[in-house]
Amino acid sequence: MSDKNWAGNYQYSARIVRPRDLDDLREIVTRAPKIRALGSRHSFNDLADADAAGVLVSTADLPSEIRIDAESRTVAVGGGVRYGDLTRDLQSAGWALHNLASLPHISVAGAIATATHGSGDRNGNLSTAVAGMRILTASGEFVDLVRGDPELAGAAVSLGALGVVTQVTLDILPTFDVRQRLFGGVQWDVVLDRFDAVTSAAYSVSLFTTWDEDTVALAWLKELDGAETTIGDDFFGAPALTEPRHMIPTMDARNTTQQLGVVGPWSERLAHFRFEFTPSNGAEIQSEYLVPRAQAVDAIRAVRELAPVIAPVLQISEIRTVASDDLWLSSAYGTDVVGFHFTWLRDQAGVEAVLPALEAALLPLGARPHWGKLYLDEDAVVPGLYPRLDDFRALAERFDPEGAFRNAFLTRLLGSV
């Protein structure tokens, strides 16, 4: 039965099946001519889809065992497990992950497959925590990769091209506490002139704007409890807020994780949204472009010039930072990056109408689109932004020589098998 993604802006072409164990999964995978794994359905494009003759395998009902290894400081978790469930188990056992994305509702395998990230100058994306993986290939073979295997850097951000990720092993660290503080009205001159100081002021800093305003509407700081800070009652002149805020002013702040400096565990602070609430009804489309940090200020200036074009279809935009890594298809491969995230109205035609101007401004600066968000790349610039793309193409062909996991998205990126 066909269905839509979480946002409702994309209709899947292939039928969806829900195997309940690995034997069922293996039988489905080995029989299907075309197949793709489907996690929490938070991709906004055709990345997760298969053609009409293929099958989409939902990982939601697969084994969800979570095994902590204190000696190696790792946790092994089923690929379909959501981060919100994983964080609860880790916290209760005294452990933590280094960072979380805005939403804890996303699946582990889906998030790492697309280099999904949180924020923080020194924090790598979620894929950088991968210490091992188990992948079911189209031949029905389970392939294990562990740290030290040269292929792990290629497989960690796989776009689903290698097979179904049934288990992921992640690095963990002792639990820690975090507080969140919000500040309103950061001057644009401060952001442009002191960008490094602004983003390094806390463990994680996010700036929220609609681009057409006189100041940055909201600075959202996540600070480690006990860490030294130079930020008092104001943030570079912007006053601390005294009431909780959703980043979209018209939405209910109860959906967000606790603010106003109340200290709590990492599992209840690093994500922007509470796991027990749905952050919105999904009536949105998302795009994101990750720009090399050296080009961040130029990118901010360029997007501000486009404010009259993008504001009519924009709900909110977030600026945040991600540390560099060596994962082949990571948007932060080889360079620290700054993410420019756009939460649009659910107006597919309207958003696609403004993306060419936005991409004309950002792609020449080396911006890499988030793999799971909506982007166009009309001039096929994106493949050239990944120096290890040929290596990944060869890896995908070794894992999947018949192209069972190759779909339209991957064909555009890698070519046909």
From TrEMBL:
Record's keyword terms, sorted: Oxidoreductase
Pfam families linked: ALO, FAD_binding_4
Top-level taxonomic group: Bacteria
Cellular component aspect of the GO annotation: membrane
InterPro entries for this protein: ALO_C (IPR007173), FAD-bd_PCMH (IPR016166), FAD-bd_PCMH-like_sf (IPR036318), FAD-bd_PCMH_sub1 (IPR016167), FAD-bd_PCMH_sub2 (IPR016169), FAD_lactone_oxidase-like (IPR010031), Oxid_FAD_bind_N (IPR006094), Vanillyl_alc_oxidase_C-sub2 (IPR016171)
Protein name: Xylitol oxidase
Entry-linked Gene3D superfamilies: 3.30.465.10, 3.30.70.2520, 3.30.70.2530, Uridine Diphospho-n-acetylenolpyruvylglucosamine Reductase, domain 2 (3.30.43.10), Vanillyl-alcohol Oxidase, Chain A, domain 4 (1.10.45.10)
FAD-binding PCMH-type domain span: 9-175
Provenance organism: Leifsonia soli
An example molecular function term from Gene Ontology annotations: D-arabinono-1,4-lactone oxidase activity
EC number: 1.1.3.41
PROSITE patterns for this protein: FAD_PCMH (PS51387)
